[in-house]
Amino acid sequence: MRRTDMQQPAQRQTGARQAMRQPGGPLARGLLKLVAPGGGGGGGLSILIYHRVRAQPDPLFPDELVREEFDAHIAMLKSGFDVLPLIDAVRLARAGRLPPRAACITFDDGYADNAEVALPVLQRHGVNATFFIASGFLNGGRMWNDSVIEAVRGAAGDELDATALGLGRHRLDTLERRRLAIPALLGQLKYRPPDERAALVRALAELSGAALPDDLMLTTAQLLRLRDAGMGIGAHTVSHPILASLTPAQARAEMADGRRALEQLLGMPVPLFAYPNGKPGTDYLAEHVEMARQIGFEGAVSTAWGGSRGRQDWHQLPRFTPWDRGRLRFLLRLARNLTVAAAMA
C-alpha cells in the first residue's frame, strides 16, 4: 500500500474529529437535530442557569466562570441553538411554535456583575437573557451564603472556631482549607429556619472579624440598565427563602411581594418566576407551583435538570447548569440534557 493510501483513513478520522470540534460543525448539528427536532411545541427547550460572571478569577473559587469563558459559552450556544428570550420561548411553546433547538439564558439572584460583566458580553453577541432578581438584596444587600463566604475569606488567623454556634471548628491556614470550610458551613446552615439561619450567619460574621462587602448585588441603576438593554427580568422572591420551609402565607407573600417590588421599580410587568434553590419536592412543593399560577406568572423555572419537550407544566420548567469549557463537551452535555426527564414537585 502506498504511503498516501495509508494516510487517507487517518485523514478521514481527523476530519471527522475536527468537524465535531467545530461548535456549529455538521456532526454536532446532526446530534442536536436528532435530540431536538423542533416543531409542534416539542422542539426541545434548553434553559441555562448562571449566577455570577467574574471579571477576574476568584482564588477561593477557581472554577467559577469568568468573562472570557462566558463569552465562549455564548458563542458555542449560538452556534448550535436558536437563543430566545425566555418569555418568548414560553409563549411560542404554549402555541406549539417553538423553533428547533431553542435555548434560553437565565441568571439567578441579582449579582452586580450581571450588569457589569455579563451584560456587555450578551450585547456583543446580540442575545437576550432573563435575570431573576431577589428584590430584597438590591442596593447593598447581601445573601446569607455570601455572608458566610466573605466571613471565611476575610477571617483573620488560621482557624475559625464556631463551636459555640454549633457550627464546628474550621482550619483556615491554607487557601484550600478555606475553600473546604465554606461548603462545610453552608451545608449546616442551608435548611435551618430563616430566622435562625440569619442569626447564626450574623454571629459567624462577627466571630470572623471580617468586613463584609455591600456591593455584591445589583443597584436599582444597574437593574434599570438591564431593562433598558432589553433583557428579561423575572421575580425570585424578596429574600430568597426555601419556600418549603415557610408557612403558605409567608411563601405567597415572598413570591407576590418580590414581583410587586420589581414591577414598581421597572414600570413594567414581571411575567416569570424562579423558585429559590429550586429543587422540586425539597426546596419548593406542589402548593408553591399552584401559588405561582394564582399570582399570575406565565411561567416558572426550577433547578431540576432536563430539557422541556412536548406538553409541559409551564410553572416547573427545568434548567441546566453548564460547566464544560471545551466546545464539543459543552454541546454534547447540552444534547444529553435534552434527553433527561426532569423531576417535578
Can you put this structure into words, describing what you see?
The structure is a single chain. By secondary structure, the chain is α/β, with parallel strands linked by helices. It has two domains: about 35-140 and about 215-335, Alpha-Beta Barrel (TIM Barrel); about 145-210, no CATH class. It has helices spanning about 5-20, 25-35, 65-80, 85-95, 110-125, 145-155, 175-190, 195-210, 220-230, 250-265, 285-295, 325-335; strands at about 45-50, 80-85, 100-110, 130-135, 160, 170, 230-235, 270-275, 300. The strands form three sheets. Strands 1, 2, 3, 4 and 7 form a five-stranded parallel sheet that branches. A two-stranded antiparallel ribbon has the order 5-6. Strands 8-9 form a two-stranded parallel ribbon. It is globular, with a radius of gyration of 22 Å.
The run of helices and strands is HHEHEHEHEHEEHHHEHEHEH
Average of the residue pLDDT scores:
87
* Spatial shape: globular
Poorly predicted residue ranges: 1-24, 37-43
CATH hierarchy: architecture of the largest domain: Alpha-Beta Barrel
Termini separation: 63 Å
Overall number of strands:
9
> CATH H-level name of the largest domain... which superfamily?
Glycoside hydrolase/deacetylase
What is the domain tally?
2
